[in-house]
Amino acid sequence: MKESLISSSTKPCSLHGPSGTPDTMLDTLQFFLLAFIVGLTGALAPGPTLVATINASMASGWTVGPRITFGHMLSELIIVILIVAGLATVALRYTTAVAVIGGVALILFGILTLTGSRQVSLAGSKSPESVVTTSPFFAGFVTSVANPYFWIWWLTVGGAMVIAGLAGGIFLACVFMAGHWCADLGWYTVVSTGIAKGKTILSDLAYQRIMMACGLFLVVFGAYYIVRLIISA
Question: Does the pLDDT at position 2 exceed 60?
């Protein structure tokens, strides 16, 4: 990469360069792909939202995945609006501190993903049937806000990346959320479709290996992020 995808310096990611559009489009695409991969590491992680998707898909079909995802997206949209409305104006004054927090959080989440990857399974466990099957959208919202991992992730990695995007303008922040939500929607739709058709999309071994790869990516990218911060300081 020519430049860090998430700028840790005070210079914002420019979306309008005097030399033309190609670099701008490339930087935007890179940021989208980064958001997608980082979002996928969160979506793949076992939790109440994944459990709700698995259980409800057996009774209500493949559309459960998208509907649960939309509820999950609503909870994240509220957080992003709060960041854009107030937190970013303060946090942009402390870009170095935000960058350090984001980099360290990426490494820590990567380590947690690696250590937990050996036990993950798509078998699922029981969740409140009445809530999930009656309103998957509501279930997606509730299982998200009730998950401590969700809040820790958004107070560290997610918040730092949205603020980094805002340094280049509201458009980059929207690009981040688009990539993040595509990862959520894609994963939960795949899971719900497979469960509804009575098939196992992934074996537990394949799922565990994907989780390990995601964890390794987070550790490597977090380390790269911090090294770039030190070099540019």
Answer: no
